[in-house]
Amino acid sequence: MPRALLSVSDKRGLVEFARGLADLGWELISTGGTAKALSSAGLTVVPIDRVTGFPEMMDGRVKTLHPAVHGGLLARRDHPEDLEALRSHGFGLIDLVTVNLYPFRQTVAKPGVALAEAIENIDIGGPSMLRSAAKNHEAVCVVVDPDDYPRVLEALRGGGVSAELRRELATKVFRHTAGYDAAIGAYLGGAAGETFPPQLTLTLERRQALRYGENPQQGAAFYVSGEGGAMADLRQLGGKELSFNNLLDVDATLLALSPFGAQTACVIIKHTTPCGLALGATAAEAYQRALATDPVSAFGSVVGFTCEVDAAAAEATKGLFVEVMVAPRFSEDAVRVLQARKNLRIVAVQPGSDAGTLDFKRVRGGFLAQQRFHHDPDESGWRVVSKRQPTAQEMDDLRFAWAAVMSVKSNAILLAKGGQAIGIGAGQMSRVDSSMLAVHKARAAGLDPMGCALASDAFFPFRDGVDEAAKAGVTAIIQPGGSVRDADAIAAADEHGLAMVFTGHRQFRH
């Protein structure tokens, strides 16, 4: 009689799977809560201590770490010496293992979890059984994912689990246990205050195969981290499949909106940088003001909101070809309006918190890692460096501009007035070019830069950017400061009667 060992924390589909095995004539061995769940369902179960001849001890810490278990899993069926060793000790073969592990990630994700509780949720016996079974997968079928129960039963009913499926399941086991160990290492390292550990293990789950990458000749897929939140939890409510570039732009949308979470804001993203951003009394008004920043570039964009999209906002976007619309929520009426546009991808996603996580950039042969950037609204380090103090209105415009320029690719210059970006210069090799481009964009959209505020994500290396801004009618500038030529920039501001504020830190996006 073939024997199966079942010991799971996630009991999804357990009873149905075990009943299927029993109907096929399998003997069921089990432990603790799993054995109770199966017995309560009317299934006959052999308790693990009857197999090992040794009782569970230390509150269940030691129960499956025994030669009767690991010998039964590791014995090579084509090695007579292995089989004789089992027989001589009175042990039997184990032909199938179903194990999933203590919920370590879920435990440490709870607010205020104690270290002692986290330690008790480090599974030892489970990974050991999985690895033993996976090593000997030519003879033992190992199942770590409840989603695989149906196809394993189907294979058994059809005459047996193929070598290909056994290898696939074993591969999943080793990836799963590697991710489990990585989560433990990350937690313990974090508890010890590590930010950049000497070894860094990334475990990612493939969420979606993509049609192609940035270009049609590049294959691509979407992977999510075990941290969850934000992009990992997005829900698509309508439209075509999200593409590689769509997903990049959705992430850029969440970044751009992050400083405005408590306000009604809309951003329009093109090629991962904003081409429009504005506040409004309603979602529809915020959209219309964001669109006014650069209506030409907005064609084929991603449009994002900090608030629920209602029917009025959905109707307001009808005149523009939009690739993706992003918001934390959509009203039922808005979904009906938007779903009529078959090519529009509708994505509901909560911004989520990624505090304490690392940001990575791929380089050839490795990764660069840095602490993830967050816009800091704290003004305690700000100082007015010009002779003229900014007016109250100018200060409001400077605050908005400083928050908005954060998501623009450098060299970044953003002009703002009344809670609206009116001109954006991005991605230029010199800052004066970005200043000129921002002014050009404002005028091309029919917006007057006279009396507006300007934000620069990094310092002005020369005074020419300030001169260009003053020529266009800018009256107040906010920038980090820190250049060896800061005095030149301040002198230029004073010559033109501009107010200038230094924040003391930059918001550079390379």
Q: Descriptors for this entry?
A:
510 residues; alpha/beta; Rossmann fold; Cytidine Deaminase, domain 2; 3 domains; six-stranded mixed sheet; 18 helices; elongated
Task: Please characterize this protein's 3D structure.
The protein is α/β, with parallel strands linked by helices and 510 residues long. It has 3 domains: 3-191, Rossmann fold; 204-348, AICAR transformylase, duplication domain (Cytidine Deaminase, domain 2); 383-502, 3-Layer(aba) Sandwich (Cytidine Deaminase, domain 2). Helices cover 37% and strands 20% of the residues. Strand 17 (413-416) and strand 18 (421-425) form a beta hairpin. It is elongated and about 95 Å long. The termini are far apart. The model has no long low-confidence stretch (mean pLDDT 91).
Q: What is the name of the CATH superfamily of the largest domain?
A: Methylglyoxal synthase-like domain
SS-derived structural category: alpha/beta
Q: Beta fraction of the residues?
A: 15-25%
Estimated helix fraction: 25-40%
CATH architecture of the largest domain: 3-Layer(aba) Sandwich
Measure the end-to-end span: 64 Å
Name the average pLDDT. Answer: 91
The helix count comes to 18
Q: How many beta-strand runs?
A: 21
Main sheet, how many strands, which sense, barrel? 6 strands, mixed
Strand order of the largest sheet: 8-13-12-11-9-10
| Highest CATH level, the class of the largest domain | Alpha Beta
Shape: elongated
Please indicate the count of domains.
Answer: 3
What fold name stands as the CATH topology of the largest domain?
Answer: Rossmann fold
Using only C-alpha atoms, the radius of gyration works out to 30 Å
User: Stretches where pLDDT falls below 50 for ≥5 residues?
Assistant: none
